[in-house]
Amino acid sequence: MKKRNRSSEILGPFMAFAVIFLLATVTTPQFCTLANLRNQILQICVTAFLAIGATLVILTGGIDISCGAAVAMLTMSFAGFCKFWGMSVWMSMALTLVCALLMGLLNGVLVATVRIPPFIATLATQGIFRGIAYMINGGSALNRLADVAEDVFYAKVFGFIPITLIYILIAYAAVYIFLKYSQTGRKIYAVGGNAAAAKLSGINVNNVLLVTYVLAGLFTGIAAILMACRLNSGSQTYGSGMEMSAIAAAVIGGASMSGGKGNIVSTFIGAATVLIVQNVLNLNSIPTSFQYIANGVMILIAVSLDIWRPQMAALFKKRGTKPGVDLEA
Amino acid sequence: MEKPANHEVLWELKNVTKVFAAVRALDDVSIQFRNGEIHALLGENGSGKSTMIKCIAGVHQPEAGEILYRGERAEITSPIVARKLGVATIFQEFSLVPTLSVCENIFLGRLPRRGKGGNGAVDWEKMRSDASKILAKLGIEINPMAIVGTLSVAQQQLVEITKAISIDASLFIMDEPTAALGQSEIVQLHALTRRLRDEGCAIIYISHRLDEVVELVDRVTVLKDGKIVGGCTGENINTAEIVRLMVGADITEHYPKENNTRDEIIYRAEGLTTAQGAHGASLDIRCGEVYGFAGLIGAGRTEIARAIFGADTLQSGTAQMRSKQIRVRKPHDAIDNGIAYLSENRKSDGLFMNFFSGPNITIVKLKKIMQRHFLNLKTERSVGEEYIRKLRISSAALDKSVQFLSGGNQQKVVIARWLHSDAELFILDEPTQGIDIKAKVEVYNLINDLTRAGKSVLLISSDLEELLAMSDRLAVVKGGKILSVLNAAEINKNQLMEIILGNHIIDEVG
To answer: Which residues fall within 8 angstroms of residue A2, CB to CB, at 6 or more apart?
Structure first.
């Protein structure tokens, strides 16, 4: 977690990002233009927030595949608060965040207290969340919520800095400090690294898991609100497949699926990488189906790299060493 | 001790060199392994023992030199080739499938089948009876149909050994086979090993426990930094000589015991009971005392320790720390009351392999490195430096994930964690398991440092010599409770073994 690791943890994802950025620039003339890049800062926002949640959960050795469906349900709740209950945008946001925290808590209880494997628990809640999203307003989207909502997303600070960039900076800085300098952050790494050792070190493993899933819920909530504000609407189809982008971002950023390894700065680089790939596919009018495939392939590559990292390091260092052989004499 | 006449050389290494990166793990080593001989390889962690056996087992291929089998050059390109040449290896790590039965594990990859060509369905009856025969022949009482995952670690180790033996082999390589075994299983394993020797097999035996080496083996070779530094055979094998060869003149006294017991009682418990196997254990430990737990595997030593520490939930029982009633429901409560628990298996529930040494040490008391609501990473680093210096941990440990450290250094990191927690009662569960003799002596010195400072140690060890030498009082544990408490100075190893074993084990061995 200290010096040596930090630089090497960021270097790998950054190299991948740089290569893809270069490829994008070369292959797609419209990519590296001011207008397109400016647009990407708006594009990355939702994924970037979902990726924070995904990283936190993956650090504990878990996974959250419910966050895409949660976005759908939360945009519909937000829209419902605005349109049916006639609440102000701010009040609706607050209530939406409460819902998001409760949804995170549900995941946390299922994983920590009921002890359902995270993949299964969040697979189930994914279905539940998507179902509730369809229940609200009988399955139709809710449009034109409030004019001020769009300002939340499109406003510019000093007339030229997109406000979404500020949101991202604040959130990532806060999570960076939380993971690196808080007791709970350290305990998240400990639980992900070795849950049995964490228990014997006096850490309340259940509480740490609960806190992690609730925090993931919080960031999913923020992502959902930003999504709803951007499109000034709520829809049952929003967020579909976004859990893939979020997980891909975390994993490309070097988070280890077995837990305990990863950092939030790299996750942002991962999110940017995922975004560029999607953007390039879009710019070249390649159908959405391929974007799903691209996300899937990126996850596979990143996880494979994580699994085979020690062997590859050994390969580079010393020729002729077989994979899987420990080097300690 | 009668040996068969065929004392010929079965395997021979001639000028073998194996290099990892820049390290010469084996440096121009020549050695012979003979039929009908138990040959011990000794040396500190990293001295090249494991590399040597891995060369014979086909895991590694040497860069230079040759390996001879019955006098002819053998190219051991893979473990499969080694097995065909009659090499059976019992590594420290199990190669068992926990969800399968004992007999399936023994015959894994060569299950007996029905039909003429042996292509039919699995012949369960034959497999079961064959497995029963092998187990009976070895004197191991395990149901061949039991699921391996439900067996104790010691029983699994015996299954592992049975599996290796069931393959027709002429050379048995045993890498710390007794690390997970209790006294009665060790006696059983030794009997087994001797029988294999008497049948004319060659045996390579690696162990950190000198007492069993002295008892068991016919020839000792000591390795250091990839070179053979000496050896002895037959009557010349004794602890003092081996220690001298292994560490040079550094260590004059193997067990540097100090008596620091005071009258005041630091910890007292009455009737500790858990669902996991503590059944009404009562004990009292004095300030500055080393209180040893003696007992067989499965007697409940670890279970009582876990009950004291709150790792298992207490069903009944009370505890006092310095005459003050304490309630320990979780490890957290125990830590708050100054109790530390160094678990038996540092890899599975001790170390955080994703952390460097510093975070591994501070994790129990993060409060101590807090500064205005934030972790002070500079303080953490200096804490790491401090313990690395104090405990003489390899200085590379500061900026290295603990997974790359040797067993001894890893153990010291875990000990440092509990020192940092300011505990007063240290429960040390097999603290010297799998670490080399130099590191062991350092652990003993640490125990002395603790007791000198008035702190107390509850020592659990399957190494009876160590337990006797380092304890002030010994509690005999059986069935999850303490049967009697002995003064360690008043008994010797044989008496202790008899007390622990009772009479049943002597019948078993015959």
So the answer is: B356, B358, B377, B381, B399
Structure tokens at B145: 């149909």
Q: How confident is residue A316, by pLDDT bands cut at 50, 70 and 90?
A: low
Confidence of residue A54 (pLDDT cuts 50, 70, 90): very high
Q: Structure tokens of B435?
A: 């670490």
Exposed / middle / buried, residue B116 (Cβ in 10 Å: 0-12, 13-18, 19+): exposed
Model pLDDT, residue A24: 93
What is the bridge-based pairing of β-strands B171-175 and B202-206?
parallel
DSSP string, B21-74: TTEEEEEEEEEEEETTEEEEEE-STTSSHHHHHHHHTTSS--SEEEEEETTEE-
Distances (CA, A) of A276 to A24, A43, A238, A281: 7, 10, 20, 8
Q: Are B42 and B223 in contact (CB under 8 A)?
A: yes
Answer whether A260 sits within 8 Å of B352, measured CB to CB: yes
DSSP state of A9: H
Q: How many CB atoms lie within 10 A of CB A208?
A: 24
**Which of A256, A318, A329 has its CB closest to that of B51?**
A329
pLDDT given at position B244: 76
Q: Output the pTM of the full model.
A: 0.77
- Which structure tokens are listed for B323? 């005459």
pLDDT tens, residue by residue, A218-274: 999 999 999 999 999 999 999 988 999 999 999 999 899 889 999 999 999 999 999
Closest CB from A197, A317, A327 relative to B351: A197
**Furthest-apart CA atoms within chain B: distance in Å:** 78
The DSSP result for A52-110, as a single string, is HHHHHHHHTT-----HHHHHHHHHHHHHHHHHTS---HHHHHHHHHHHHHHHHHHHHII
Q: Do A193 and B353 touch (CB under 8 A)?
A: yes
